[in-house]
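Subgroup meeting minutes
Present: P.N., E.W., G.H.
Scribe: E.W.

1. P.N. recapped why we're keeping a running log of single-chain structure predictions: easier to compare across weeks, and new members can see raw inputs and outputs side by side.
2. G.H. added today's entry (524 aa).
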Amino acid sequence: MLKVLLVDDENIILQGLSVIIDWEKEGFDIIGKAGNGREALEKIKAENPDVVISDIRMPVMTGLELLEKVRKENISDANFIILTGFDDFEYARTALKNNALDYLLKPVEKDELLGALNKAKEIRAEKEKNDESEIDRRKEVFSRNIISIIKGKPDNDSVMLVKEHLGELSGVRYVSVELDETEDSVKEASDEKKRSMQKELYMKCCEITGDEFRCVFDVSLRGSYYDVGIIYSDELLTDDLNERSYLEKMKKELCDGLDFPIIINPGGRVGKIEELAESCKSVMLVNFIRGFEMSTDRSEVNDEWAGQGGNLDKAGIDELIHAVEINSQDEIKSGTKKMCEGLAKGESRITDMVINYLLFELMHIAREVNADINQEEIVHNIGNSAFDDLYLDGDVENMTKMLLNFSEYLVELRGDNAAGVLKSIEADMRENYKDNLTLKDFGKKYFVNAAYLGQLFKSRYGMSFKSFLHKIRIEKAEELLLHTDMKMYNIAEAVGYKDADYFINHFIAEKGCTPTKYRKQVNN
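Output recorded in log:
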């Protein structure tokens, strides 16, 4: 409804205007009445009416003086309908000169008043349409410029335009919010339905941040998908909220306010809006991992290295992959830091290539542990476990967490397949018992952490790895004592002991007598 202010020094006129038409039915609301121009001026400043219907001749300040002051000082863009009992051309000319909407003679006819009011409605509707078009145009220009900054292509004009809308920001993060297409309710929806969900998501983000210019529709950091970007900065914080609590609150409000699943990813913290692309790096890493599809041809991945790897330290990355295989946490941390430092100096395509190689090799390891493993499930597990808890650290920390989580995931897979691994190791020990076998070497060979493998041995065999190895060697020594006439030192060497006395001591511990006595007892 349009707001109307009635101004006249005669109460009977004000009462007549109040009832001459059904204001509510016609789309208007009388928000006040005034007896002179000065009183009306104060109400205009306070209420900002859309239409002012004012008499000309009034004490203190006339209707024309009121109109002239409002226009000259740009107090309001309200449409003025001037009323007078005098058919004076000068009055009319002054009114029209100050952009009065209409000039009506008293007594006012209902149809004449409705005609003037309908003109006011048309003007207001056209203005709102133009205002909306201007806002849409500004948002479109803003969106193009902020996306250029997000994607690492800022220029001075883009930065200045963005700052016109957002101001000078501090403690900036890019926060990605997207539909969770791993969930059936989204995955099985039509494109039209997904687009509708995305628009609803955008409106909710605008509502929570309280600023349409902080929310960017369709950033699409990883191609065609359904996302909204939020420009977070410390200016959004209140006295009772710090950064983490604000983002957690935002996540809860988004999840509670939508009836479809979403994924929220905050990028790293940067100092100013110009560095927004740096904040996006960890978001793009997560998106790359979630969108990863394993190649069926291993040679393709290696050929990519040969063609584009340049001076990157492939050996160092292979060492990092091996550290993940054997769950060496210190080596994972140091290797990840070294890799990320190298990637920071390269182009985004090199980063994608390295991450692709890294993920391919890790997935290959998982497949070797369990051939029936579901690739989509593994990738989803990695992405969720590493990033969905609103981690606010940098790229190195996030990548380290991801690789540590994957290493633990491999431990779990091997735990599920522990019986098979131990069976293979036992067969290996029985075949190669003469060699210098160690738990560490078997851990590397079968990609199991040595300490974890030692625990498996105790759990499965009720003894340590070394005790189990001695047990196998003594069993082999028994066979030689029974079926050959070899000397003790020859038997000791044949079963893997370089020192005959060391062999005899272990034989006594296992069988309760010396090898010589054992041979005599059995032969007798």
